[in-house]
Amino acid sequence: xxxxxxxxxxxQNNQIQHSAxxxxxxxxxxxxxxxxxxxVQFFRELFRPPYEHKEFLRQxxxxxxxxxxxxxxxxxxxxxVLTLQSKPVMAEFGAESWxxxxxxxxxxxxxxxxxxxxxxxxxxxxxxxxxxxxxxxTEQIDAMEVSGTNPMxxxxxTRVLATTFMxxxxxxxxxxxxxxxxxxxxxLHDFMSLxxxxxxxxxxxxxxDLIPATVKTFFFxxxxxxxxxxxxxxxxxxxxxxxxxxxxxxxxxxxxxxxxDLIAVQLADLSSIFFN
Amino acid sequence: xxxxxxxxxxxxxNSVIEIKHLKKTFNGNTVLKDISMNVRxxxxxxxxxxSGIGKSVxxxxxxxxxxxxxxxxxxxxxEVSDMNSNELNILRTKVGFIFQGNALYDSxxxxxxxxxPLRRNKILRDSHEIESLxxxxxxxxxxxxxxxxxPSELSGGMKKRIGVARTLxxxxxxxxxxxxxxxxxxxxxxxxSNLILEIQTKSKASSIVISHDLNCAKITSNRMxxxxxxxFKAKGTFDELMNSEDEWVRSYFKTE
Lengths: 276, 256
Ligand SMILES: Nc1ncnc2c1ncn2[C@@H]1O[C@H](COP(=O)(O)OP(=O)(O)OP(=O)(O)O)[C@@H](O)[C@H]1O
Ligand SMILES: [Mg+2]
What we know:
The complex is a heterodimer of chains A (about 280) and B (about 260).
Chain A: H1 2-46, H2 53-92, H3 99-137, H4 140-146, H5 151-189, H6 194-202, H7 207-233, H8 238-275
Helix pairs in contact in A: 1-5, 2-3, 2-5, 3-5, 3-6, 3-7, 3-8, 5-7, 7-8
Chain B: H1 2-9, E1 15-26, E2 29-40, E3 44-49, H2 55-62, E4 70-75, E5 78-79, H3 85-94, E6 95-98, H4 110-120, H5 127-140, H6 156-168, E7 174-178, H7 186-203, E8 206-210, H8 214-220, E9 223-228, E10 231-236, H9 238-242, H10 247-251
Parallel strand pairs in B: 3-8, 3-9, 6-7, 7-8
Antiparallel strand pairs in B: 1-2, 1-4, 4-5, 9-10
Helix pairs in contact in B: 4-5, 4-6, 7-8
């Protein structure tokens, strides 16, 4: 009797476990399918008039203005901290003159793009998710649809294009500010002219660093815009739905940023072997 | 007086909307079971029904916002479910939809709200023409002084009227009103009801008006339908239904 109960209990447990696995897999596949379909739809709408230049510029402007101070401060601190942290190690090897070069390579290749993209995922991705989500919940998207105005074209295409083109610009800006942070850090204790710093910093940078680092920022921007729009556009009803849309836009796009980064590193590695 | 006119009117005219055996289920919850109805040219049909019974779902099916499970739904003699997205967009410029919750674009001013459907549909390119249409539409709802306000600065009744103006600016041939007077004071309700009637007589548009408001139904209806548990349980003019032999039908008209 006792054994039986145990058996049944275990069996039930297994079933629960099993169905829980299925739910995770199901939601993952559903999301992936939905996002792929959304991407296809995006590209279909991309080339279909009317082209909303004005709305695109408005969105781009909004992205720039809302993130500029935050990215500036973060980038400055990153450059400063990175330099201060690396300084003792470099000094130990007597390689202090390599400090600017080392910092600039890590900023341009990795830290600038990723930190900027993550900040933008948090700030812009969630903003887009919440905005479109609340437009869905208050039936504004439906209202656009029933007046034959093609909201996918008006709302989604403009926003995704805006993030795709603004993130690279913001990354460039973050890199510059980080350099300045690094320069300030070096001058806290020693003296180095800006000119010498720049020479040392730019010396180790090659096209191999710049091209993949720039190309991946476009993908970061695209992912942030697309995922934010997707989550908002298909937001569940109710206030809770809007919160969820904003939240999952940030979580998913942050994750996707790391995945893109990983792929970019692999590709850059491969191509550098190929070209050398 | 209005109703007498309308009995004469709705004899042998073509239907602009024709629905047959429409069915819609949401995850096992059957909202519309077997809906058949038609709307003739320049006729106002009022649909009554309790909250949550599926009135909004029904008119959302007409503009293709919700896909029905089965049955036929023809607008201007064309099956809506057979249309591709272009055809659907063209249809949608001819069918105006006034949302229960207004659905004003809250990031745009009133002017931009009205301009948006005109501009996006490329109906007019000339900015003077667009401006004069906007002014005319706002004058119709007596809200010209709100032209530069944001939706958040408007009262509930004003939003409703702007919603009506935004829909009417495309000069639709069919207008679907989802509870146009709910939540408004009796005076404003009457104004909106009269506006609906005026639009019908002026532009010969056909409409479906969903309403709980008996005064609005009385003013605007040519014919009325009562939706209950997925089917139309009663049909007739306002007076016919109000004086119905059926106690259940009469219960919809009790005011206390
Ligand atoms: N998109 C949807 N998904 C699932 N269920 C829905 C959806 N839209 C409506 N429903 C369900 O359909 C039913 C009818 O909803 P509907 O909005 O048509 O009611 P209504 O008659 O307009 O009520 P009210 O007078 O309160 O507006 C409700 O039970 C609702 O839960
Ligand atoms: Mg409703």
